[in-house]
Amino acid sequence: SFHRRLYSVQSSGINAEYGYYITNNLRRLLAAMSKVLDPYYDLIMDDDLAKNEWPSKLDEAMKQERKSIMAQVITREMWDKYKNHTTKNGWTLARAINTGVTNPDSFLGCHAGDLESYNDFGPLFRGAIEKYHVGFNMETMKHVTDMDVNKIGTALADHAKSKIISTRIRCARNLSFFPLNTCGTKESRLEIADLMEGVFGTLSGDLAGKFYRHTSMTEDEIKELVDKHFLFRGKDRMQAASGYHADWPHGRGIFVSKDEKFLMWLNEGDHLRIISMEQGGDIPSVFDRLGRGAAAVEEGLKKVTGRDEVYMSHPVLGMITCCPTNLGTGMRGSVHIIIPKLIKKIGFEGIDKVARSMNCQARGSTGEHSEVIDRVDISNWRRLGYPEYDLVEDMIKCVNVISQMEDEIEA
Fold this sequence. Notes:
It is a single chain. This protein is of the alpha+beta class. It contains 15 helices and ten strands. The model is unreliable at 1-14 (pLDDT under 50).
């Protein structure tokens, strides 16, 4: 399979995926008609937070040994100080923490609604950011974006390249003149889709392609995109609790280049998810395409809107995203690598331990928590405080070590 994480693949196969997508869209339509709220798509506020009161569920969550980062950071004093504040786009502290309150199993537990969220609710987000992005100090550090492929200082070893099935690098971007989708509306999402359709028309060469809207794709187009594992479908209760999936599927879409190596997800979570990918292990080629794509989209946006600045950014935090975990680069670079002997010898947990010691992480090749048989997904862990080329180099160094470990095991 080719980077099956591009679509939330079910173990029952392609036909089941296609059937799920069609059935799920029908279910969403029926739910909208009957006004039944769906926790996997609709924004459902905690009862206390809906009344702008301290959430009683949070008291219980704080007693647990394992609690979200939000629950570790927020205090009653913080709540009382900021509960009545609203950003210019209408984001509140109640909205920011709703996902962690309604989903106590959340790892992070808070989301931003706009750029101002990170400043206006500073103590919450500063605490969450510094706990997640270990080592980043908002008082003394600032993020710098740099996607120059020529600055990668470590080459992928031949023994590692021969084991890689596919490479995928993506980055998130949001438009500075819209609120984040957590705070967006059906109308704002449709405006973004209309705007981006014009921007896609400015792309040329290997970046040129076709834009598909979720609401107007034919069944044949849906099946083709599902078969290729390109299509996203939403359906995440933690994101839904912050408003990510509101008015699904309106304003959502996917752009696919002619050679299918450059993709963009539109309003999946952040406004833009820019994706570069291909079979094999030519990591510099994939990263170069990502950088060119992100720059071409930026230039297209400037051309279409007449604006000088189009991407939402912060002088300290870099590229702004709904989820604080993606701040900075908004980038995740990954490869699928075949290492059956190492999996058998030290297991997935052992491989992940090695990866994390090198600022990377391991996942199952079909997503987090998926079964591991002969291959794993290795990706950068760091996002904030380091330029993109450094994070790609993190991944290359880690893959070289893991490949060498595989080769050192006797058959």
